[in-house]
């Protein structure tokens, strides 16, 4: 049995799920029904966990921070927190514009279908699944390499902690870029 998405929004569901999990857009349950309260609580928990992970005293001791290292660590901490917050704010700010663009594209597809040009939402869905799979694979490989190199110096829990601190804002930003380029295609 083949699932055939009826709208562009449904065809882009893999990318939407990725943005929901990372907190870059509002949860929609049921589909196309945004849940502002749930989304806000989820983002607050994510942001608090990230800030706590950076503020956790043992991580500072593990990295043996003193003098200039401590200053660089503080700058990195606030820069990463700022990048994460900007990604989430931008995602939420442009949520409505994103929905309007999707609606306009669906209307355009409907007009083209009335002219005899069929829409191919199934191909878009498959393309989105492939892109999402490649993105997740890339993230797993990058984190695995970092853990491989960190495991020589630290225990596994500390390696995961350090990877989380380093990769969280970078991957949030990459999801924003990934979503934008997927819409352009």
Layout: helices, strands, pairs:
Blueprint: H1 8-11, H2 13-22, E1 27-28, E2 34-35, H3 36-55, H4 57-62, H5 68-93, H6 95-114, H7 121-150, H8 156-184
Antiparallel strand pairs: 1-2
How large, in whole angstroms, is the Cα Rg?
A: 20 Å
**What share of the residues lie within helices?**
over 70%
Into which percentage range does the β-strand content fall?
A: under 5%
Label the overall shape: elongated
Mean pLDDT: 78
In angstroms, what separates the terminal alpha carbons? Answer: 27 Å
Low-confidence stretches: none
* Domains, number: 1
Number of strands: 2
Helix/strand order: HHEEHHHHHH
Strand order of the largest sheet: 1-2
Largest sheet: 2 strands, antiparallel
Count of alpha and pi helical runs: 8
Task: Write a structural description.
Helix 2 (13-22) packs parallel to helix 7 (121-150) and helix 7 packs antiparallel against helix 8 (156-184). It is built from 8 helices and 2 strands. The protein has one domain. The protein has helices spanning 8-11, 13-22, 36-55, 57-62, 68-93, 95-114, 121-150, 156-184; strands spanning 27-28, 34-35. A two-stranded antiparallel ribbon has the order 1-2. The model has no long low-confidence stretch (mean pLDDT 78). The chain is elongated, with a radius of gyration of 20 Å. Strand 1 and strand 2 (34-35) form a beta hairpin. The protein is 78% helix and 2% strand. The protein has 185 residues and is mostly helical.
């Amino acid at each position: 049995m083949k699932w055939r998405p009826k709208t562009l929004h449904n065809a882009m569901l893999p990318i939407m799920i990725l943005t929901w999990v990372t907190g870059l857009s509002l949860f929609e349950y049921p589909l196309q029904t945004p849940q502002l309260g749930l989304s806000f609580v989820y983002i607050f928990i994510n942001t608090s966990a990230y800030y706590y992970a950076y503020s956790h005293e043992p991580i500072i001791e593990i990295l043996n921070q003193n003098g200039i290292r401590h200053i660089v660590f503080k700058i990195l901490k606030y820069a990463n927190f700022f990048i994460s917050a900007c990604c989430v704010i931008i995602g939420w700010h442009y949520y409505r514009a994103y929905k309007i663009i999707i609606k306009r594209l669906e209307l355009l597809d409907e007009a083209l279908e009335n002219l005899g040009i069929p829409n191919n939402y199934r191909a878009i869905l498959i393309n989105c699944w492939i892109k999402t799979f490649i993105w997740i694979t890339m993230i797993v490989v990058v984190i695995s390499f970092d853990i491989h190199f960190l495991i020589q110096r630290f225990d596994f829990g500390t390696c995961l902690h350090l990877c989380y601190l380093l990769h969280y804002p970078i991957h949030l930003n990459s999801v924003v870029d990934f979503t934008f380029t997927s819409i352009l295609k």
